[in-house]
Amino acid sequence: MTKLPREQELELRKKLVEIKRKRRKSQFGRFMVRFMNILARHVPGGYFRARLHRIKGVVVGKNVWIGEEVYIDNEYPFLIFLEDNVEIAAYSMIMAHSRDLHLLEPGMYVSDLGYPPSPVRIKKGAWLGLHSIVLGGVTIGEGSVIAAGAVVTKDVPDFALAGGVPAKVLKYLPGSPNFIEKEGEKED
Predict the structure, then answer these.
(1) Choice among 53, 97, 102, 131 that is catalytic
(2) In sequence order, what are the residues at sequence separation of 6 or more whose Cβ sits closer than 8 angstroms to the Cβ of residue 85?
(3) What is the pLDDT of residues 5-29, one digit of tens each?
(4) Which of 89, 90, 121, 164 has its CA 20 to 30 A from that of 63?
(5) Is 102 a catalytic residue?
(6) CA end-to-end span of the chain, whole Å?
(7) What pTM was estimated for this model as a whole?
(8) Which residues contact 182 (CB under 8 A, 6 or more apart)?
(9) Could you give the domains of the chain?
């Protein structure tokens, strides 16, 4: 994840909040986003669910498949980017905002912090396993696989298998410059 100077990061977050306010001024607009989310979570057909999330405001590429009960952020759907051929297994969660504990100062409570938005980008060909969670400000690399139950809090490089809480790179997949083929695993 590219780190910006603190002042630039706070300014960017203020601009994102302003964009959100402009996009959803009316109560009806907020209702429609929530309604589309409920509909997208429950209708059959993974490709159809992807279309419904696109209507909700998520940036969705071609041939994206979304499993049942996948929750994609209601507050900032326009900060979620799903590139081509992404697959998201059932019961996963993608959030574009969470509390920023870096802003916590002595004497403050966590509840005093806001929910600053940060974009989430899942690059083409990536796959999220069952019950995985992706938090704001994360980029999942091209062709990467996120193991079931993983909580992704930091960027995952291209063609990597990541898992755990918090998710760490477990190994690199073929296609990665870091991939090492073991002697006993060669294909004929």
Answers:
(1) 102
(2) 61, 62, 63, 64, 124, 125
(3) 667 666 766 766 676 666 555 677 7
(4) 164
(5) yes
(6) 38
(7) 0.78
(8) none
(9) 26-175 (2.160.10.10)
